[in-house]
Write a structure and sequence with these properties.
The chain is mainly β. The chain has seven helices and 44 strands. The strands form seven sheets. It has a 22-stranded antiparallel beta barrel. The chain has a five-stranded mixed beta sheet with strand order 9-15-16-13-14. Strands 1, 4, 7 and 8 form a four-stranded mixed beta sheet that branches. It is globular.
Length: about 800
């Protein structure tokens, strides 16, 4: 026995010496539909080792010995997974957690984006990706998302374009409230301070039916972080400077809770921006500076089954419009579209002169919710006050500081919904949306209003039913909306007109998501949506200085300039049928998402060039709102490949073809095809320090699907000879050829220091590193000047 025991001990000793302890155990944690669970904890119970799932749900243990390990995977809102895994070499193991309905609903909502339907095609911007866009406008930041472009007016005004459409076809929800400003203009940027957001979600189909019927393109959700519910004070400070326009940004927030009142939280936030003239590659873009002063405060109380939030924000901006767009004669206009640099180009300055716009936007929100396990009730009231003034060159010193265009828009909204879980497989959501809106001209402009005064009444009801099976999720949504406008305005002869307009219609969506194994899924949706023409599309009248154009609405007679009577209920309504299909695969080192879409819009409303005309305030290109049947077909591709723990490769592509089906022609101001490639290096943390470096190359193609060109000079020369080149032409045209394609190179370098209770982040980046001279096809000011040249940005961020 002693001999056998000795042999056994010797064998065990040799066995332990020969045992390898250099194995890697890695994998991914996801929910039942394959969505990564960021922040999930993975524990090796007996070894007292743990890892946290990263932004893609991945984890990795290094230098493990062979043997059997007890694994525990935990995530708030899901049942803990306990199992054992035998390790005899490197092993990839994926965990799928099951939702636990008994846990705190609010946490689950935050992590799983419950604002988004489970079958929606969506992308998000959060974490490091969002932080690296700080200092830019909302529209600029959204360009980092595949399938999202911008239509812009100069270097400071950007509006998101989703799958080729923009403005009121793209809904923006600011902290859960539908953003309501004078957003009918392509040069009216969203009045949203991006610094309030902890994540931004873009829904690319019409499945977000509870937000409204008119989301023909998609929905942008700007979501702040949830208020703290525990005692203590924290916050962030951001200081950002940029070289191109000499801009400076200071933003920050403080937040905290009360020890004596668990569940209560508060936050106060503010932002100041100031920028001078931007610079193109070879010259100054005079009068393109801007300023912003924004702040917000919020407070609320939340327990496991109920909660209430109160939020108030104020947004204030002043933006200059390129001085070279303002001309006095037809010859000047022709010259302005041909010369470079633009006329009236002056040395750099921070001063903002005419033409310019000034906008103030106030938002108040009160939100309450109550849950009892299977039911959740939500009630939300919102009030918005929007003041917009546009200043032009006007004759006489007394008029120089009086706006040529000014409106006050006040909006009240009330939203209520009831979400019920009938069983683990079947859930419903029913709701109602009510809106009252009043738009009035600001007195004293001494001009005929560009759009009339109006009162807008709207109500909508919706129902969404969701069925969850083992590998399938099916959703069906139906909505009915009624809208009424009471309109009062003046025509060119300064004669009063009145109109009462009604719109009503149904919209619906059907979508399916199918899980394909452990790593991939496919989503498809079919939806129909509708959108009534807005007041600008119906009644626009005269010079729109911020757009450097004269615009006329659908109801303005082209020959007599008289305002026509609105015909019948639902006349001029856009009706869209959209099909979206998406495929997603996520593995440990590789992920890709491919989205294809077809959007056919009947009676699509767009600004169609109609020539050159002269008004009291100068000569401008002349556009008229027109309707046609249009199709938008395209796809978006986004891929990430992780070479190793430090190096990541990314690539994205967006291709789009838009067609005027009625004229068998091309549409104007449609984003051109584009592609990005990038490489990022993230260092291994050295104690509490880490750094990263990245480079990106963006390619934007020339828009080859552009309408024919009739330059302003040809129109002017022909008009002098008594010839109207446009009068009998029903096709589309543009004043200038689509600009050439171009490449933009950007680089970035960042570093982070984690202290005991705080963190410092520093980022240095350069956009358009080679100082390329280019013009973006969707920039309304491409007729007059190049886009922005090289821009070096330094950002310092402190969190505590």
């Amino acid at each position: 026995m002693k001999y056998l025991l000795s042999l056994f001990l010797i064998f065990e000793s040799f066995s332990s010496l020969s045992q390898s302890c250099d194995y890697i155990f890695s994998g991914k944690v996801s929910d039942e539909m394959g969505n990564p669970l960021v922040g999930a904890t993975i524990l090796l119970a007996k070894q007292n080792k743990g890892e946290v799932a990263d932004e893609n749900g991945f984890f990795q243990f290094n230098k493990l010995c062979s043997g059997r390990y007890q694994i525990e995977v935990r995530f708030v809102g899901f049942k803990t997974l306990s199992t054992s895994v035998k390790l005899s070499g490197d092993k990839i193991w994926n965990a799928t957690l099951v939702s636990d309905s008994t846990t705190l609903n609010e946490v689950v909502i935050s992590e799983k984006h419950s604002e988004v339907a489970a079958t929606s095609t969506y992308s998000s911007l959060s974490g490091k990706a969002l932080e690296e866009t700080l200092g830019k406008s909302l529209g600029e930041s959204l360009r980092e998302i595949p399938g999202v472009n911008t239509i812009q007016t100069g270097p400071a005004i950007f509006k998101p374009v989703i799958h080729g459409v923009h403005s009121q076809r793209v809904l923006i929800l600011n902290n859960g409230i539908r953003q309501e400003g004078q957003n009918w203009g392509a040069e009216h940027a969203p009045e949203v301070d991006q610094f309030i957001a902890s994540n931004i979600i873009v829904i690319k189909d019409a499945a977000a039916i509870k937000y409204g019927a008119d989301a023909l393109g998609g929905v942008v959700l700007v979501n702040p972080a949830k208020l703290p519910t525990e005692a203590g004070i924290g916050g962030q400070v951001h200081v950002i400077g940029a070289s191109n326009n000499g801009s400076g940004v200071l933003s920050g927030f403080l937040e905290g809770g009360l020890k004596k009142w668990p569940g209560f939280g508060w936050r106060a936030q503010g932002t100041i921006k100031k920028a001078g003239d931007s610079r193109a590659g070879n010259y100054v873009l005079s009068n393109t500076g801007f300023e912003e002063q924004n702040f917000s405060v919020s407070t609320g109380y939340h327990s496991e089954k109920k909660g209430i939030d109160i939020f108030y924000s104020h947004f204030n901006t002043s933006i200059g419009i390129l001085r070279g767009t303002a001309v006095e004669t037809a010859e000047d206009l022709a010259n302005a579209q041909e010369r470079e640099p633009p006329q009236y180009t002056l040395p750099f300055t921070y001063e903002i002169k005419q033409p310019r716009q000034s906008v103030q936007h106030d938002l108040l929100k009160v939100n309450a919710h109550l849950a009892d396990g299977k039911n959740e009730f939500r009630l939300q009231y919102g009030f918005q006050n929007n003041n917009r003034k546009e200043f032009d060159f006007r004759l006489g010193a007394a008029l120089s500081n009086i706006p040529a265009l000014g409106f006050q828009l006040q909006t009240h909204t009330l939203d209520a919904d009831w979400e019920r879980s009938h069983s683990k497989k079947f859930q419903s959501c029913w709701g109602v949306n009510i809106l009252y809106q009043s738009n009035n001209k600001i007195d004293g402009t001494q001009t005929i209003p560009f759009i009339p005064n109006f009162d807008h009444y709207a109500a909508g009801i919706f129902a969404v039913e969701k069925l969850t099976l083992e590998d399938w999720i099916v959703e069906l949504g139906l909505r009915y909306d009624f809208k009424k406008y009471n309109v009062v305005g003046f025509n060119f002869q300064n004669r009063l007109y009145r109109s009462n307009i009604d719109f009503q219609n149904f919209s619906g969506t059907f979508s399916v998501k199918r899980k394909l194994g452990n790593f991939s899924s496919i989503t498809t949706s079919i939806s129909n949506a509708w959108r009534p023409p807005n007041m600008a599309e119906l009644y626009s009248l005269g010079t729109h200085q911020s757009a450097a154009a004269i615009e006329y609405g659908l109801l303005l007679d082209e020959k007599t300039s008289e305002v026509k009577e609105y015909a019948t209920t639902n006349a001029g309504v856009e009706k869209a049928f959209k099909w979206v299909v998406g495929y997603k695969i996520e593995k440990q080192k590789f992920s890709t998402e491919l989205t294809g879409y077809v959007n056919y819009i009947f009676d699509f409303i767009y600004l169609r060039p109609r020539g050159v005309t002269e008004g009291l305030r100068g000569v401008f290109p002349y556009f008229r709102y027109t309707q046609t049947d249009a199709s938008f077909v395209g796809f978006d591709l986004f891929s990430v490949y992780q070479l190793n723990r430090q190096v990541t490769l990314t690539g994205k592509t967006s291709l789009l073809q838009a067609t005027d089906q009625t004229q068998n022609d091309f549409l104007i101001f449609i984003p051109s095809n584009r592609a990005d490639i990038g490489m990022r290096y993230d260092s291994k943390p050295i104690k509490k320090f880490s750094w990263n470096a990245e480079t990106k190359l963006r390619w934007i193609a020339r828009q080859i699907r552009a309408p024919k060109v009739i330059p302003a000079r040809e129109i002017v020369v022909a008009k002098a000879q008594g010839i109207d080149l446009i009068q009998d032409d029903t096709g589309n045209f543009d004043f200038a050829a689509a600009p050439n394609g171009y490449f933009l190179l950007s680089i970035g370098l960042g570093a982070s220091w984690k202290l005991e209770n705080s963190k410092w982040d520093v980022r240095l980046s350069a956009d358009n590193l080679t100082n390329e001279a280019y013009r973006e096809y969707t920039n309304r000011l491409r007729y007059f000047a190049d886009d922005v040249g090289r821009n070096i940005t330094l950002g310092i961020h402190f969190s505590f």
